[in-house]
Design a protein that fits this description.
Two copies of one chain form a homodimer.
Chain A lengths: L6 E5 L3 H12 L3 E5 L5 H18 L10 E4 L2 H5 L4 E4 L5 H14 L5 E4 L6 H5 L8 E6 L8 E6 L5 H13 L3 E4 L9 H17 L5 H16 L3 H9 L4 H9 L18 H15 L4 H21 L4 H13 L2
Parallel strand pairs in A: 1-2, 1-4, 2-3, 4-5, 5-6, 7-8
Antiparallel strand pairs in A: 6-7
Helix pairs in contact in A: 1-2, 12-13
Amino acid sequence: MGAAIERAAVVGAGVIGSAWAARFALHGVDVKVLDPNPDTERILGEVFDNARAAWGALDLPSVPEGAVEIVETYDEACNDAQWVQESAPENVEMKRSILQQIDDACDHDAVIASSTSGIKPSDLQKGMSHPWRLLVGHPFNPVYLLPLVEVCGGEPTGKDIIERAMEVYASVSMKPLHVRVEIDAFIADRLLEAVWRESLWLVNDGVATTEEIDDAIRYGFGLRWAQMGLFETYRVAGGEGGMGHFVRQFGPTLSWPWTKLMDVPELTDELIDTIEQQSEAQSGAHSIRELERIRDQNLVGILRALEANDWGAGETLAKQRDSLSSN
Amino acid sequence: MGAAIERAAVVGAGVIGSAWAARFALHGVDVKVLDPNPDTERILGEVFDNARAAWGALDLPSVPEGAVEIVETYDEACNDAQWVQESAPENVEMKRSILQQIDDACDHDAVIASSTSGIKPSDLQKGMSHPWRLLVGHPFNPVYLLPLVEVCGGEPTGKDIIERAMEVYASVSMKPLHVRVEIDAFIADRLLEAVWRESLWLVNDGVATTEEIDDAIRYGFGLRWAQMGLFETYRVAGGEGGMGHFVRQFGPTLSWPWTKLMDVPELTDELIDTIEQQSEAQSGAHSIRELERIRDQNLVGILRALEANDWGAGETLAKQRDSLSSN
C-alpha cells in the first residue's frame, strides 16, 4: 500500500495548502511548496504541528515523513512533481494565471488539481496548454483530518485523470467523492451556502445570535450529520413507512413561507459588525490557536468513536491505519 | 438535583412522543401516555429498549425509572400532570383541538408544551382557555439522546412559563435554547429546510444521489458541525484575521448564481420514486431497527468523545451524569 505518488507540489500554502502538504508528507510523499507569502514557513510549521498532534492523538502508525521544501519558482516546484495541488485565493483570473504557469512547468505525466470550493473546472481550464489534466480536488478544513475531497472534472478533463485522482486521494486516506455533473460550488458548498444564507438572515433580522445558531446545530442535527447525513437520518425518522412516506409527509411544508432564501441579505458594514461582535462574545475567550486545538481534539474523538463502530469517516480512518502500518 | 417535575403527560406517542416518555421516565418522572394508535404499547416498548440501551452504553447512573402508564382519556393523562408534552402530527387544526382538550383537563398549575417543529405557538394558542401556559418545546430525534430543545413562547405565553420550561428541560439533561423571536420553524428547522430544498434540487437535476449527498455531509462538514456549528468553524477558518475578515472574503460569493433556492422543486411522484430508490440502494441493506441501533451507537460514541473534551453536547452529558448520580 502507501501513497500512489512519491512527489507532490503544493502551490498556495495558506491554511488549506499547508494542510495538503501535511497530509501528503505524513503519508511519506515528498512535497515542494510554492507561495509568495513571506510567512509561509511559519504557517507551514504551525499547520504541521497541528497535523502531527492529530496523528499522535489518532494513534496512527508513523511512516518516515516526506521531505518538505519551500521553493521560489514554478520550475522548482513542479518539474518532477507527479501531482500538483493548487490552493490559491478564490479568484478566477488569479487561479487561471497560476494554473497556466503550473501547466507550463510540469512534466507531461503530472496531474494538476485545484482546491477551489466554487469555480467550475471548465472555467479554470481556459488558456491551459494541457487542459485535459486539470481537475478540481476540493478538500475540507482541516485537510489533515477531514477525509472528504470532492473530485470534479471539466469538459476537457480526461477520464483517466479522474480515475487517477480517485486513486491518489484514496492513497492518502481520503474519501474522494466524484461530482459527476459540473456545477458551481459542487455538492457540499451548495448545502453550506444554503445554511449560510439562512443564518445571515437570522442574524440580520435579530432572530438569533451566532452563538444561538451554532448551538442549534451542535446540540442537535450536527450530531446526526457527523455520522449519517440528511437522507439516511430521515429514512430512520420515517420509520417502517420508509423514505417515500417521509418525503410525502415532509413535502407540503416545503411550500410554507419559512425561508427568506429567495433574497440575499446585503452584507452591510452594520451586519458584518454585528456578526463580528457576536462571534467575539461567543468565542473570544479562546485564541484561534486554542480553538484549532479544541476542534482537532473533538474531531479526533469523533473519528475514533466512529472507527470503533466501523462507520462512515471511522471506516476511512481504519483504512488509513491499515495502509500506514503496511507501509 | 433530579428532575424539576414528578409527573408528566405525553400526548401523542409516535417516535417523538415515545422518546419524550423515555427521557422523562429515565430521569425518574412518572409518565402517563395518551395516543389513539393501537400500536402505542409496541412503539413505546421499542423506543424504551433503544433508550435504555443508549443509557447503558453511555454508562449513565440509573435511577429508579418513573412509572409509565398508557391511558385512554385526556382526564386520566392530564389531571395530575405538572408538565404535558404534546407530540401530535404537524397539523394546525388537529393540534389546536388536542391542545384545547389538554388545557381543559389540566390542573391550573400545569404547563403545556408542543413538540411542533414548524407551527408558531401563537397559532396554537388560538381557542385555548389558558393560552399563557402554552409554549413550544421542539426536540430532535432521537429525543432520548440529543440534548437540544428549542423553547419558544407565543404572544400570550407567560414569562414565568418560559423560565419554568428552561428549568424543567435542563433538569432532564437537555440543552434548552430560547428562541426569542417567534418565527415559523424556529432556528434549526430553518437551516434544515434550506439544506433539504437544495438537496432536492441536486437529486431532481441528477447532479447527485442521496448517498452522494449524505457522504458530502458526513465525511466533511458534518464532522465539524457536531462540535462547533457554522460560525465558530468559520471563525477558526478565518484565522488571525477573525470573523469580520472571513465574512468580507466569503461575502462576494453570496451573489453568485449557485443556488436554485429561489424556487421550490415540485415533489412529483417521479422525484419521490427517485429518492425512494436511491435511499433503498444506499441503506436498504440495513433494516430501520438496525439503522436506529447504528445511529444510537454512533451518537453515544460521539457524545462520549465530546464529554472527554468537556465540550458542547459532551458538557451536557457530563451534567447529566452528575445530576443522575446525585439523585
